[in-house]
Structures are given as structure tokens and as C-alpha cells.
Amino acid sequence: MSIGETYLKAVRERFKTIKADGDKAIAQLDIEQLHWAFNEESNSIAVIVKHVSGNMISRWTDFLTTDGEKTTRNRDEEFIDSIDTKEELLTIWEKGWQVFLDSLLSLTEMDLMAHVFIRGQQHTVIDAIERQMAHYAAHVGQIVYVGKQIKGEEWKTLSIPRGQSQLFTEAMKKS
After folding, report:
1. What CATH code would you report for 3-174?
2. Cross-referenced Gene3D superfamilies, in alphabetical order (predicted)?
3. Cα separation of 47 and 51, whole Å?
4. d(CA 78, CA 70)
5. What is d(CA 131, CA 137) in angstroms, rounded to the nearest whole number?
């Protein structure tokens, strides 16, 4: 496998892991909890979901051929908490991820050194992917952190439970 193919495989898997963490965190919360914000300057999970989805749809629709900041995007509206139901939130979440992952899956090794534009600024495809990796991972991290704060002891860990690192490592080595 070439370096480009290896890179694409790695980032596709990493993004799926990031999405899975967001999915598992959101699944643990009810609609009221999804709207909770620490203060006026903080974003609720519902707002983060709207923002991430809006970003994904804008950046990854016609990714190779149009500027990633679409004229149809209203970024400021993404920060208004207007989602009414958990079903609506999940629909918005899934739509963004579907657009993004479909576009990511369509990329070939030859596309990696091509150039795309985001807000008129030129980036290589690799740079655009890495930029989104940092962006989406940060926001999913916020979702997980807020979920943990809300659920407290009821939180179901998304990774290795405390005190079980050694057991987990030993099991991984056996598989």
C-alpha cells in the first residue's frame, strides 16, 4: 500500500472513531441535557452538533471544486440553540457526517496534493483534512466532556474504565 493510500485509510478510520465517540456520548443524554450550557458564553451539545454539521456540509459538499465556505451557510445561526427534539438533533448530526464521510471516501491518493479553498485561502487536500481532524476532534471532545459533567457517576465510559488499563493492555496483546 502506498503512503497516500495508507494515509487515507488512517484518517477514514480515525474520523469514524471520533464520530463513534460523539454517538456514544449523545446516546447517554436526554434532550434537556443536550441543551445544557455552563453559562451564556458556553455552547450546549445541541449547538455544537449544529455547528459541526453545518461546517461539514459547507466544507465537504463539492469539496474539490468549490470553496469550503459556501454562500448558503449561515454560520452565525449554527450558534443559536433551536433544536427541539433528540430525533432532530440526531438527523442534523448524521446529515453532516454523511456528507463528510462520503466525500472523504471518494478521495483518491491523487487528490491528496490537489488544492482546495476555504474562505478564499488555498490549502492542500491533506491540510484541509488535517484541519478538520483537529476541528471535529475538539468539538467531539467538548461533547464528551459536557456529557461527563452532566451524567457524573452515571456516565458510561467511552474508552478504558479507570483502574482497568493493565487488563485492557493484556487483552489487546492476546488478540
Report:
1. 1.20.120.450
2. dinb family like domain (1.20.120.450)
3. 6
4. 14
5. 10
